[in-house]
Design brief:
single chain, mainly alpha, 3-stranded antiparallel beta sheet, elongated, Arc Repressor Mutant, subunit A, 150 residues
């Protein structure tokens, strides 16, 4: 792999860094396309992530949502507050911990997810269209292996 930089950190390190940059560029490109798609429904990507996790996983606490969306507690709290204000989600007191709330998606929230999610899934199928089924399986396995090693 030819590098344009004049400084090398070793063939393996250079290749790993180049691979990381390709991974980030690919992520950023797909994320930008999906953000634009999600915004066309009047939602931010963070709002969509919270609605999506509640839709697919069921009722959850803010902490559980934060972990599943890989967000920060402070940001998730603000997103949740705004989603509640706009009628997308509701909350109730946690049965086991009265200091905590359990969040659930409202019918309004379900309606928006159900209207946008089929094309969202199709978009991802299209992004990966250049890869065969075996290549998608291999990519998934390799990324999972890399994640577990960290």
């Amino acid at each position: 792999m030819k590098m344009h930089a004049t400084k090398s950190y070793g063939e393996r390190a250079d290749k790993c860094m180049s691979t990381w940059i390709q991974l980030l560029r690919t992520y950023n490109k797909i994320r930008a396309k999906e953000s634009s798609y999600i915004q066309s429904f009047g939602l931010t990507m963070n709002q969509f992530q919270v609605l999506e996790v509640l839709y697919h996983r069921g009722n959850l606490s803010v902490g559980e949502i934060t972990k599943l969306t890989m967000g920060t507690h402070g940001n998730t709290t603000v997103v949740v507050k705004n989603l509640k204000r706009d009628g997308w989600i509701d909350s109730s007191t946690h049965e086991k911990d009265k200091r905590s709330s359990i969040l659930c998606i409202t019918q309004k929230g379900k309606d928006i997810i159900e209207s946008l999610f089929p094309d969202h899934a199709k978009n991802f199928q299209n992004y990966f269209e250049v890869l065969s089924d075996d290549e998608v399986d291999t990519l998934f396995s390799l990324l999972r292996k890399l994640k577990k090693a960290q």
